[in-house]
Amino acid sequence: MWASGLPQSVFGRFRYGDVATPPAAMGDGFLCRGGTVVGIPVVLTGLDDVARQPIDNSALQAGGGALLPGTTWNFQFIHRDATSFGTGFNDSPALSIAFSS
Known about the structure:
- The chain has one helix at 57-63; strands at residues 2-3, 11-26, 29-39, 43-44, 51-52, 72-80, 89-91, 95-98.
- By secondary structure, it is mainly beta.
- It has one domain (2-54, 67-98).
- Strands 2, 3, 4, 6, 7 and 8 form a six-stranded antiparallel sheet that branches. A two-stranded antiparallel sheet has the order 1-5.
- Strand 6 (72-80) and strand 7 (89-91) form a beta hairpin.
- The longest helix is centred in the middle third of the chain and has 7 residues, at 57-63.
- 23% of the residues are buried.
- The mean pLDDT is 86.
């Protein structure tokens, strides 16, 4: 999993949910996912403005949130942002992915 266009060297995490929600203000961005929400461990963005996180789907199956055929998940990256307007964090745009066999 990866997200680009982020501040350099900041901590953040990918979160995803099984429901796409109408945008709701959160931090200096918008929360666009809900339902069953899964968080993936925190990562540090690189000097190339990208956050990268390998996904172990077998571990997700044990804890919930497995990326299985026939499921659709809505992903966002939530990150610290010193340039934000007072809240100190921001959200990436959401991406909805339907998994097929």
